[in-house]
Protein 1
Amino acid sequence: MARLSQADLVDLNHKFEQRTPQELLQWAKQTFGERVASISAMQKSGTVVCHMIKSSGAAIPTLFVDTGVMFQETLETRDRIINEYGLNVITLHPELTMEEQTEKEGILYLTSEGQEQCCHARKVEPLRKVGDQYDAFIGSLRRSDGGKRGVCPILSVDVETNTVRINPLAEFDDDHLEAYIKENDVIVNPLHSQGFTTIGCNRCTTPVLPSEPKRAGRWRHLGPWSVYCGINPTDRDPTHSPSIELPQELVDRILGRMTDYMI
Ligand code: SF4
């Protein structure tokens, strides 16, 4: 096994800025084979990635974390992606239902500490549990979403799941996204036309005013809008370059180099 750190990816990230999302998806499939999946919350940018996967013909499964308190519109969007795009969407669930969790812990999402615990149990943990089946996950973060995502790299390491995170849409701004959706008639979660700029659990997501930041509708009851669920490694605050452990041969393939360790 070998360590792969965020610092190791600096040069590759720089080179990948010149690649299109479709080229990055192709690289992901070629590099990770059966051990790559996309993750999607069925928001607009996530269904764009689903469409790109469908168009590429790459057999990349999509993981959808159903926290048990998703909007009906989101579940219906997932079903449309399965039926109309023919993608292999795997739905992951937390260990406890929301009712069981509330009975055990109370209503967690009402406080900042509780929100972290709830998001970890209902979003991060289901993904962490399948982490050993994968070496890489494809996300759909975009820098134009601002906040911590304003500097999101294309490649990052996720210590929670010991995987590489690939965000092929990092450089896609709103105009690019809307143009792609229009041109390809992409399936879009209907909540977006009801004022939802981002979409999560029904307990913690509201529409936003045009004058508000895009993420103002997430955990609005907790105050500042810059709150994240922690499922995306680049939304966390590492104090040093995080690193993961992968087979040496895979690390060499990712970095496009040969390592010759004689001792
Ligand atoms: S978004 Fe809210 S309900 Fe959903 S997992 Fe996080 S805290 Fe819990």
Protein 2
Amino acid sequence: MNRDLIICLLDTDRHDRDAFDCGELALNEYLQKTASQHLKKGVANTYILVNSAESNRIMGFFTLSFLEVDLSEVPAKYGKKLPRSHLPAVKLARLAIDKSCQGKNYGRLLLVDAMHRVAAAIRNTAGVVGLFVDAKNQSVAAFYEKFGFIPLRDNSLSLMIPQQTILGLFPDKT
Ligand SMILES: CC(C)(COP(=O)(O)OP(=O)(O)OC[C@H]1O[C@@H](n2cnc3c(N)ncnc32)[C@H](O)[C@@H]1OP(=O)(O)O)[C@@H](O)C(=O)NCCC(=O)NCCS
């Protein structure tokens, strides 16, 4: 990763949320109005991408929270010998890059960082079956599939990447 880039928790005293525009109103509004409340209440963490030279300007963000899934939401190959319900998982609840920064691999960078955090959580904190996401449309679903996410059903906009795949991507025990 470029050493000038920083990924850290949203801090409303330092980061300018109002200037952020990814082209999707709902995502902009989540960052501007809700993300900080969720962070303070401890129900979802929003991480932002900034450049150290302009460290108040949010280039992109993602949000992680926990959820429970049923075994039917885990591809059969990865669900063997697991309980039928109440399986712990992580949700990539939001991912967005500012319009001025799209197409420059920052979405990839944030997605890989999110997966790295999940790998570290599995190894150091608590196990989960995988990382789940609801894509906004088929094009964005294709973006996630590029990184190993599996649609839960044919043409589904709900996808997951199994624990086994994530740990395989980060074998260094971080
Ligand atoms: C979707 C989004 C996060 C992608 O981030 P990005 O920084 O523009 O994407 P990257 O430059 O990291 O692209 C990485 C790869 O994914 C591909 N890709 C990017 N956006 C894509 C899309 N919408 N559909 C399919 N593939 C896509 C790129 O072509 C690139 O492929 P390559 O490895 O073959 O070169 C970003 O465009 C965005 O924030 N869009 C608006 C908000 C949104 O839709 N968020 C997702 C909500 S589910």
Protein 3
Amino acid sequence: MLRKCTKNDIQYIYKIYFHPTVNPFMNIKTMSLNDFSDYWAKRMINEDIFVWVEGDKIAGMICINQESNRCSGTVTLCSLAIHPDYHNKGLGRKMVNEILSKLKKDKIVRVQLIVEEDNDKARPFYKKLGFEEEGKLRKYFNREGKFIDEIMMARLL
Ligand SMILES: CC(C)(COP(=O)(O)OP(=O)(O)OC[C@H]1O[C@@H](n2cnc3c(N)ncnc32)[C@H](O)[C@@H]1OP(=O)(O)O)[C@@H](O)C(=O)NCCC(=O)NCCS
């Protein structure tokens, strides 16, 4: 089930964000739960953040940012992750599809994101969900001193 993120979810989001197989693809370096709580609380003010609840557990999250003015038909997705305990069970697909349906109702016409070139799970995942690669941001992402290209992907609704 998709629902809006609340402050009570932050400790569970922290566990997903800093899982060793997830964190290399998140735009944040290691930090304490306290520091992360402050960082996430600020993001909750400025972004639309949703969690995917499976049973009584937070299994994933996704952030939505609507662009402004003449670009307001576009939404940028970020910080999308499913906890590895739940990978390959179709939850990522369900979560993104629910978001896309909601955005379509809201008259959004374009949904975009960036993904690291070496993210061999997420790139095929997004392609399966109808996103197309549109370009490259060279050496945009710094992972422990190694600069990695970002692939720009988008799909129209
Ligand atoms: C990418 C991610 C969200 C996928 O979530 P998931 O719940 O495991 O994906 P699903 O089970 O819903 O898979 C949906 C489709 O993507 C495909 N897919 C998922 N993982 C894949 C992989 N490792 N390799 C190839 N295809 C994959 C599936 O085959 C499936 O297609 P199908 O239904 O036709 O079989 C998850 O691996 C993740 O959280 N990764 C770490 C964080 C991350 O990289 N986030 C992206 C940041 S840009």
